[in-house]
Design a protein that fits this description.
Elements: H1 4-12, H2 50-60, E1 73-82, E2 102-110, E3 125-133, E4 136-143, H3 156-163, H4 179-187, H5 192-199, E5 213-214, E6 219-222, E7 228-237, H6 246-255, H7 259-269, E8 275-284, E9 310-319, H8 324-329, E10 342-343, H9 348-364, H10 445-453, H11 456-471, H12 476-487, H13 491-501, E11 535-539, H14 546-558, E12 562-567, E13 572-573, E14 580-581, E15 584-585, E16 596-599, H15 609-624, E17 629-632, H16 635-642, E18 657-659, E19 662-665, H17 670-681
Parallel strand pairs: 11-12, 11-16, 12-15, 16-17, 17-19
Antiparallel strand pairs: 1-2, 1-9, 2-3, 3-4, 5-7, 6-7, 6-10, 7-8, 8-9, 13-14, 18-19
Helix pairs in contact: 3-4, 4-12, 5-10, 11-13, 12-13
C-alpha cells in the first residue's frame, strides 16, 4: 500500500541532490564552484562567468517580503478526519465520511514581531489551517484567542501601526509594552476584551501542542438544501491547554528563543504527534438576535455554557516540512478560501480580511500564480481561464476565454444540479452609510466576564501583566486613561493596576457583575492528567543513586514523558551502582525549559560550588514557577533547605510525602513514582508558599 505522506513529499520535492553532479539552473554540469572565472590567478573577474552570475543573483534574490503580521511562524503537515457525517448542517465534503482523511498544513505564529523575534513573547498566536479537500482548498485562518482587538477591518492598519515597534526607534521588538499600543487601547474600548486575553497567560502558551485555536468570526454552515447555520470554530489540544508564566517566558527568550518552534519539530520527529479536536458552536439562523451581543461582532464570544462546543473531528500533525522557506514561509492563507458548505457572514472584520489576504499574497509571493507553489496547490483539479503572469508554471493549451466554441466550450460551467459552490441566498439591502450598528456598542460586559471567570492565580498574573505593560509606558496620561477604562471592567482590577503603575486610583463605577464562564479559565482546561510529552529533568552528579535515577526515568518514560539526565558536565557521571550517560550539561539549560524536576538520591552532590549553585537555582526556579518537584533519599534534606519551612518533605513509615506539588521519599517506590506522575499531570501548583529571597 502506498504511503500517502511519501507521495505528498515526492510531489513537492526538488531534484534529489544525491542523484548526480552539481548543475546550473539550466542543467549544465559544474565541476568547480569555489572560485570565480578570472584573468590569471590575481586578475579581475570576467563578466562571462555565467555560473558566478547566476549563483550570486539567485542569492541576492532569496528573500521575499516577510509578513507584516504573523511573520514568525512554524508549520507542520497532518490530516483531519471527521467523527461522523455533518450533513445535517453542512454539505462540505471533508466533513462527511469518517473513513476519509483530508491532508492539512498548519502554521502557528506570533503576531507583532519580525521573523527573527523570539517565540515566547506576550502576543496573540496565529493558528491557521489549510485543508486540501477534494472540493478545493479550505483555509481556517484563526488565532489562539476567540476574539480580536477591533470590530471593523478599516481599523486594522491603525491597530497594527499602534502595536508594531515605535516608528522613531523601531523598539520594542515582539512586544506590546510600549506607548503607542496602550495609547490606542486607552482610546479604543472595543480592544478591551482581547486585551484581557493578552494580559492573561493565554498570551504565552507552553507549546503549540497545548494551545487552543479559534476561527474568531461567526461563519455559516450551509446544508444540501441551502439552509444556513451560524458556526464558531474551536480547536482543542488533546493534551490540555497549558501556558508559561511571564517570568519564565522572559528567561526562555534568552535560553531558547525557538522554544515553541523547537518543541513542535522535536515532538513530531519523535512520533509524539500533536492532536487537536475540532469543535463547533452552532446557532440556528432564526436565533441570530437572541443574544445580548451581536453575533457579527468579532470582539465577542458565545459562552460555552450558553452554546456548548460540539466535537466534529480530529486533526493530527504527523510530518515536519522538508524546507522551511518553500513550505512554511510560502504558504498562503486566505479567509475567502472556502468550499461548498461553508460561507461568510456580514462581520465587517471578516469582510475586510476577505479582501486583504489576497492583496497581501500578490505582494509577498510576486504575482497571481502563488497557488501553483506546491504547498499552496490544491489536490482538487484546477481548470481556469487565468493565464500568464509572474511565475506561471503551467503550460496551457487551447482557448483562454469563456464562452468559447473553438475550445469545445471548455472548461464548461458546472451543471446547475452539481455540488458547485453557491453563496447562501439572503436578502441584503440598506442605505450606504459609515456607521456601526448599536448592537456593537457594549465593550465592557465580556471583558468583565473574562475577568470574573479567572481563578485567583490567573487574576494575579493578569494584574502583574498590566503592571508590567503599563510600567513600560512613558506617557502618564496613557496610563491614567487605561486605568479608567479598566475601572469600567472591574474596580478592584483597576485599583490593583493603578497601585502598580503610580497613578491615582479610579473612582468606583457601577458595573454589573456578569455571569462567569468557567470554560475560559486555564484551571478548567488542564486535560486528563496525562504526562505524555512532558519534559522532565532529572538532576544527577557524581555519587548519585543510579538506581533511583533509572527507576524514575523508566517509569515516567513509560507514561509518555520525555526524561533527560542533567549533570554539571557532559559525558557521564559516576555512581556506586554504575555510570549514567548525561543528556545535557547544567550550564546549557534551565528549569524554564522543563515541566518538572526530580532529584534522585545525592542528585545535588556534585561538590563543585558553581554547579551546586546552578542546580539550586534550577530547583528554586521550578518551585517558583509552580512546577512539580520530586526528591529521593539524601536529596530530600538538600531540597528541604531550598524551600520554605511550611513545605512538608518527610514521609511517614516510608510513604512518600506530597505537599504543594513537592513529592519526597526515602527510597524509590511505586507510590512515589505514582505521586510524581500525578503531580506532573496537574501541570502547575499555584497554592505554594512563596519563596523568600
Amino acid at each position: 500500500m502506498a504511503d500517502p505522506k511519501q507521495e505528498q513529499r515526492d510531489a513537492f520535492r526538488a531534484e534529489d541532490p544525491a542523484s548526480g553532479p552539481l548543475t546550473t539552473d539550466q542543467g549544465v554540469v559544474v565541476d568547480h564552484t569555489d572560485d570565480s572565472l578570472q584573468a590569471g590567478e590575481r586578475g579581475p573577474t570576467l563578466m562571462e562567468d555565467f555560473h558566478f552570475r547566476e549563483k550570486i543573483t539567485r542569492f541576492d534574490h532569496e528573500r521575499i517580503p516577510e509578513r507584516v503580521v504573523h511573520a514568525r511562524g512554524a508549520g507542520a503537515y497532518g490530516y483531519f478526519e471527521p467523527y461522523a457525517s455533518c450533513a445535517e448542517f453542512t454539505r462540505a465534503a471533508f466533513l462527511q465520511d469518517p473513513s476519509v482523511r483530508t491532508p492539512v498544513f498548519v502554521r502557528f505564529s506570533t503576531v507583532q514581531g519580525p521573523r527573527g523575534s523570539a517565540d515566547t513573547v506576550r502576543d496573540v498566536r496565529g493558528f491557521a489551517t489549510k485543508f486540501y479537500t477534494t472540493e478545493g482548498n479550505y483555509d481556517l485562518v484563526g488565532n489562539n484567542f476567540p476574539v480580536f482587538f477591533i470590530q471593523d477591518g478599516i481599523k486594522f492598519p491603525d491597530f497594527v501601526h499602534a502595536v508594531k515597534p515605535e516608528p522613531h526607534n523601531e523598539i520594542p521588538t515582539g512586544a506590546s509594552a510600549h506607548d503607542t499600543l496602550w495609547d490606542f487601547v486607552s482610546l479604543q474600548p472595543e480592544t478591551l476584551h482581547t486585551i484581557m486575553w493578552l494580559m492573561s497567560d493565554r498570551a504565552i502558551p507552553r507549546s503549540y501542542r497545548t494551545m487552543q485555536g479559534f476561527g474568531v468570526h461567526t461563519f455559516r454552515f450551509v446544508d444540501a438544501a441551502g439552509k444556513g447555520t451560524f458556526v464558531k470554530f474551536h480547536w482543542r489540544p488533546l493534551l490540555g491547554v497549558h501556558s508559561l508564566v511571564w517570568d519564565e517566558a522572559q528567561e526562555t527568550q534568552g535560553r531558547d528563543p525557538d522554544f515553541n518552534r523547537r518543541d513542535l519539530w522535536d515532538c513530531i520527529e519523535a512520533g509524539n504527534y500533536p492532536e487537536y479536536e475540532l469543535g463547533v458552536q452552532l446557532v440556528p439562523e432564526e436565533d441570530e438576535h437572541s443574544f445580548d451581543f451581536d453575533l457579527l461582532d468579532a470582539t465577542k464570544i458565545i459562552p460555552e455554557e450558553r452554546v456548548p462546543v460540539r466535537p466534529i473531528g480530529k486533526m493530527v500533525l504527523n510530518r515536519n516540512p522538508d524546507n522551511f522557506f518553500a513550505e512554511t514561509e510560502q504558504i498562503a492563507f486566505h479567509t475567502a478560501n472556502v468550499v461548498p458548505g461553508i460561507d461568510f457572514t456580514n462581520d465587517p472584520l471578516l469582510q475586510a480580511r476577505n479582501f486583504s489576504y489576497l492583496d497581501t499574497q500578490l505582494l509577498r509571493l510576486g504575482g497571481p500564480n502563488f497557488s501553483q507553489i506546491p504547498v499552496n496547490r490544491p489536490v482538487a483539479p484546477v481548470r481556469t481561464n487565468q493565464r500568464d503572469g509572474f511565475h506561471q508554471n503551467q503550460i496551457h493549451r487551447g482557448t483562454s476565454y469563456s464562452p468559447n466554441s473553438l475550445g469545445g466550450g471548455c472548461p464548461a460551467l458546472a451543471d446547475p444540479d452539481s455540488p458547485a459552490f453557491r453563496h447562501l441566498t439572503e436578502r441584503v439591502d440598506g442605505q450606504k452609510i459609515r456607521r456601526r450598528s448599536p448592537s456593537f456598542d457594549d465593550h465592557y460586559t465580556q471583558p468583565a466576564m473574562f475577568w470574573h471567570s479567572m481563578s485567583a492565580w490567573e487574576q494575579k498574573h493578569i494584574v502583574d501583566a498590566f503592571r508590567f505593560e503599563l510600567g513600560k509606558v512613558g506617557a502618564r496620561a496613557v496610563r491614567e486613561r487605561t486605568v479608567e477604562q479598566l475601572a469600567r471592567v472591574d474596580h478592584e482590577l483597576a485599583v490593583a493596576v493603578a497601585q502598580g503603575v503610580g497613578v491615582a486610583e479610579p473612582r468606583r463605577q457601577e458595573t454589573p457583575r456578569p455571569t462567569p464562564s468557567p470554560a475560559l479559565s486555564l484551571e478548567n482546561n488542564k486535560g486528563d492528567g496525562s504526562i505524555s510529552t512532558r519534559q522532565v529533568a532529572v538532576l544527577v552528579s557524581d555519587g548519585v543513586d543510579a538506581g533511583h535515577a533509572r527507576a524514575v526515568r523508566d517509569a515516567l518514560t513509560e507514561g509518555g514523558a520525555i526524561v533527560e539526565f542533567i549533570a554539571p558536565r557532559d559525558g557521564e557521571v559516576r555512581a556506586a551502582d554504575g555510570a549514567l550517560a548525561v543528556d545535557r550539561a547544567l550550564p546549557t539549560v534551565a528549569s524554564v525549559l522543563y515541566d518538572a524536576v526530580v532529584l534522585p538520591g545525592n542528585g545535588l552532590g556534585a561538590g563543585d560550588p558553581v554547579s551546586d549553585d546552578l542546580a539550586r537555582r534550577f530547583v528554586r526556579g521550578a518551585y517558583r514557577h509552580g512546577k512539580p518537584i520530586g526528591a529521593l533519599g539524601a536529596s530530600v534534606a538538600e531540597l528541604a533547605a531550598l524551600l520554605p519551612d511550611s513545605v512538608r518533605t518527610a514521609g511517614a513509615d516510608g510513604a512518600p510525602a506530597v505537599d504543594q506539588g513537592v513529592v519526597t521519599a526515602d527510597a524509590v517506590s511505586d507510590d512515589f513514582l505514582r505521586a510524581v506522575a500525578e503531580s506532573i499531570g496537574a501541570h502547575r501548583h499555584w497554592e505554594r508558599t512563596p519563596l523568600s529571597g
